[in-house]
């Protein structure tokens, strides 16, 4: 088994604990170099994580003969460009989620990697995380009978721009950088995991609005969808609510499974007469199990469950849920520009 040598483009917050250490702690894996446009920050990251090299130019990662694969951990508006550059350099690539700003960009990325003959994976790490595999196994074992529907909820109090990042809007609620608001950033994980368990969503309808006024991106979303298997689902997501609350419920003919996307709380299996708690903790570096599947795949052992094709499906679902709202925002911008001219 060979050691897969990684380079990281964009060593920001997500790479500190969640992902970065996984590249040098996974079996047969090593982190060779990191890149950040701010060279001083790249140097600091390399020093603290024991990485031999750091750069302030992505080309140094892409051209390196001693780097076998690249992890792109930048903000979403740059994902397409970096993935296309990785493909052109012949480097297998793992890109952060959401995969891109739109389904069209996802298609471009998939096509470029296919032409170059390099694999493309997306960091929907819950597809390999033990807690979520336990949920999948419960469904597949028939623990609650045939599944009828899925309900998803996430509520948060309004976090204003000043609270989140004084002086500038955080990128997660800047649609020009992220593709939307917190719904896109957070609930893409849930939608992707449901795709993993129940298969592709074939029909979806959604409504979105901005009610809190702290930023332009949507802060209230409702949606309904149907999987190819016939299982139906619905979700309500509000980021200008009274309190923090988040859960998903899988409703079967003989019981229910409740679990959280964002919190490592016990899985609850309710069969009417009794409620079973199943505690499954998360590892210190939650990306590491997914990273291990990629390293193993590159070594000819198994395959990673989160591909460009699967992740693109999630982006397309989000496009459909937010489509009307995005058009409204775009039209509003046009109207404002006309009024000002």
* N- and C-termini, Cα separation: 64 Å
Order of helices and strands: EHEHEHEHEHEHEHHHEEEEEEEHH
User: Into how many domains do the coordinates divide?
Assistant: 2
**What would you give as the CATH superfamily of the largest domain?**
Dihydrodipicolinate Reductase, domain 2
Short account of what is shown:
The chain is an alpha/beta fold and 341 residues long. It folds into 2 domains: 4-126, Rossmann fold (3-Layer(aba) Sandwich), CATH 3.40.50.720; 130-282 and 316-332, Dihydrodipicolinate Reductase, domain 2 (2-Layer Sandwich).
Walk me through the structure.
With 341 residues, the protein is of the alpha/beta class. The chain is globular. The chain has two domains: 4-126, NAD(P)-binding Rossmann-like Domain (Rossmann fold, 3-Layer(aba) Sandwich), CATH 3.40.50; 130-282 and 316-332, Dihydrodipicolinate Reductase, domain 2 (2-Layer Sandwich). It has helices spanning 20-25, 39-49, 58-62, 79-88, 103-116, 130-140, 161-164, 175-178, 182-198, 288-298, 308-340; strands at residues 4-9, 29-35, 53-55, 69-72, 93-95, 120-122, 147-157, 201-209, 220-227, 232-241, 245-252, 256-259, 267-270, 275-278.
């Amino acid at each position: 088994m060979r050691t897969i040598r990684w380079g990281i483009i964009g060593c920001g917050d997500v790479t500190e604990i969640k992902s970065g250490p996984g590249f040098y702690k996974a079996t047969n894996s090593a982190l060779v170099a990191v890149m950040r446009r701010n060279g001083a920050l790249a140097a600091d990251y390399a020093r603290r994580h024991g990485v031999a090299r750091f750069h302030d130019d992505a080309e140094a990662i892409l051209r390196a003969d001693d780097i076998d694969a690249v992890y792109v951990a930048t903000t979403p508006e740059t994902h397409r460009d970096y993935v296309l550059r990785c493909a052109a350099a012949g480097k297998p690539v793992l890109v952060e989620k959401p995969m891109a700003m739109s389904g069209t960009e996802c298609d471009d990325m998939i096509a470029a990697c296919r032409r170059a003959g390099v694999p493309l994976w997306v960091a929907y790490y819950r597809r390999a995380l033990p807690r979520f595999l336990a949920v999948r196994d419960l469904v597949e074992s028939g623990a609650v009978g045939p599944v009828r529907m899925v309900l998803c909820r996430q509520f948060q109090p309004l976090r204003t721009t000043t609270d989140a990042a004084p002086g500038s809007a955080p990128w997660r609620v800047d649609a020009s950088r992220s593709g939307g608001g917190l719904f896109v950033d957070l609930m893409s994980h849930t939608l992707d995991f449901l795709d993993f368990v129940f298969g592709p969503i074939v029909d979806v309808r959604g409504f979105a609005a901005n009610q809190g006024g702290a930023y332009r991106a949507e802060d209230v979303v409702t949606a309904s969808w149907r999987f190819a298997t016939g299982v139906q689902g619905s979700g309500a997501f509000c980021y200008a609510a009274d309190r923090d609350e988040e859960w998903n419920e899988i409703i079967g003919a003989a019981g229910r499974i409740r679990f959280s996307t964002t919190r490592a709380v016990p899985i609850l299996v309710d069969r009417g007469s009794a409620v079973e708690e199943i505690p499954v903790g998360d590892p210190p570096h939650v990306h590491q199990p997914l990273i291990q599947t990629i390293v193993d795949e590159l070594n000819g052992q198994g395959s990673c469950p989160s591909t460009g094709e699967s992740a693109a499906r999630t982006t397309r679902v989000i496009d459909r849920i937010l489509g009307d709202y995005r058009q409204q925002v775009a039209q509003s911008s046009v109207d404002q520009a006309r009024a000002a001219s």
